[in-house]
Amino acid sequence: MVSIRLDDLGARYGRKPLVQDVTTPAFAGGEVVAVIGPNAAGKSTLFKRIAGLLRGPGQVHVEGARRGRDAVCYMPQDTSANAVLTVYESILLARKQGSSWSVGDDDLGRIDETLEALGIADIAFKNIGELSGGQRQLASLAQMLVRDPDVLLMDEPTSALDLSRQVEVLTYMRSLARARGMVVLIALHDLNHALRFSDHTMVIANGELIACGPSHDVITPALLHEVYHVEARIEPCSRGIGQVIVDDVAAKGKTFGIGYRPPQTSMKVPAE
Ligand SMILES: Nc1ncnc2c1ncn2[C@@H]1O[C@H](COP(=O)(O)OP(=O)(O)OP(=O)(O)O)[C@@H](O)[C@H]1O
Fold first, then answer.
1. What is the pTM of this model?
2. Using a 6 Å CB cutoff, which residues line ligand 1?
3. Partners of 187 in the beta sheet?
4. How far is the CA of 93 from the centre of ligand 1 (A)?
5. Which ranges carry the ABC transporter domain (predicted)?
6. Residue nearest to atom 6 of ligand 1 (CA)
7. Which terminal residue of the chain has fewer beta carbons within 10 Å of its beta carbon, N or C?
8. Minimum-distance ligand 1 atom for the alpha carbon of 187
């Protein structure tokens, strides 16, 4: 079974180090790992470093992979595409990348299965330049899945999707991780998704790993206060799944340079 472990990993753009000293336990095939943290914390940079797209110190240890050189796939946050290809062609191209160009029944079967599972069979022959943002994100996800990676890095893969699609995609990803023995690392801003769909959570802040462990142990009111400067509770919903409820933004959390202002308690109604 595949496993991935990060050892003192760092990454830089030019000379500037943006991620440093990231060391994790081994994550095993079948596990979903959420990567959370504020804007500009270094989540995408970390993913690019793991995928070998950036240089830096430290090591990525992948053991037991089936796919050798193609073991790790990275789905970037920005999925815009200009190529004049249909969705189907782009997925076929992704499937055959780095292998022989002959197309077999297994290739076609995997593509059909993925299109169906992601609910995009109806747009298979649309040009990818003509898709909506959400459709493009699903097509991009399909391109990754047909490559059968051992480790899949997904950078905010549900950011353009409507509510039901978000839940469907994350449910599917978790079942696929289990069924294919794949490790899935997902950068997420929705902490309720992290609580519901991930086994482990890594928290990145200012380019450093400040917490890593079982998601329900890591995502706590104290952590949310420290990292996001919010006063929050974690309450179990009727199905027993933890939900983050943000009561307030701490004064320290002013983000836009205007300082925190308490919410307005009344609205001005124009006189008739
Ligand atoms: N190509 C680049 N050259 C120089 N600096 C970059 C480059 N790309 C990103 N950065 C910087 O690296 C830092 C981390 O960015 P990164 O995209 O990894 O953050 P993130 O945690 O993924 O943020 P977000 O949640 O907003 O997507 C930021 O300060 C960003 O400005």
1. 0.89
2. 13, 18, 37, 39-45, 77
3. 35, 155
4. 29
5. 4-231
6. 13
7. C
8. 22
